Amino acid sequence: MSVSVDGRKSLLKHQYDKLTSISPRSVLASYLEGKPLSHNPEKPQLIFPFGFNLSQKAAVEKAITEQVSIIEGPPGTGKTQTILNIISNAYMNGKTVAVVSNNNSATANVLEKLDKYGVGFIAAYLGSKQNRTEFFENQSGQLPTMSSWSLSHEERHRIRTQLKAAQNKLDEMLGYKNKQAKLKQELSKLKTEYGYFKSYYEESKLDELRLKAVERMGSQKLLKFMIEYKEVVKDGPVSFKNKNL
Questions:
Q1: Which tens digit of pLDDT belongs to each residue from 233-243?
Q2: Bridging pattern class, strands 8-9 and 4-5
């Protein structure tokens, strides 16, 4: 990637010049040194206070266990909802999160959702100089009462145990839901094919197929025919000559 445009320093070059050190735990350090990205093999204990579906759950799990995770999708597919769940899990585990974007509307959308649920005070809306100025000017120094947020060791252990059991049950139910979705898709295809066949059959006005030769056979003769046929097919496929006998 070029660091200059028409002989002038690019924005990327300006950012590079500001770097004085690189954390050895960062993704950038792994990239520059050619090291593999880290992965947490343990299944994390997750919460989903903002709701989720199967793909969003998988996205949150990847974001928590992988050093780099990419979530993509068209507008309206729940990316902001997924970001909020990632923030919740990071916060629950004592971590901090930086939500960045090349435009203010994306980060403002995340803050708006946090405000909607009454937890917007955990975020600092910075970014541009104007945003930083407004944020610090609007600070009242008062925080909501969070005494009810404090839990004893026993309560935390009990909740985590319940969460683990609920997560296992949830994974099982989501598996059923995924299987149900596949079956519905297959059923939809079968219904479509049946509709085509029915339309073709009605338009062709075909006479109903009837096995008249079999209908004229008595029970004894039919039984004999079935036994003989069974003996014939033992030697392989029935020839055209034998079919007419």
A1: 777 666 555 55
A2: antiparallel
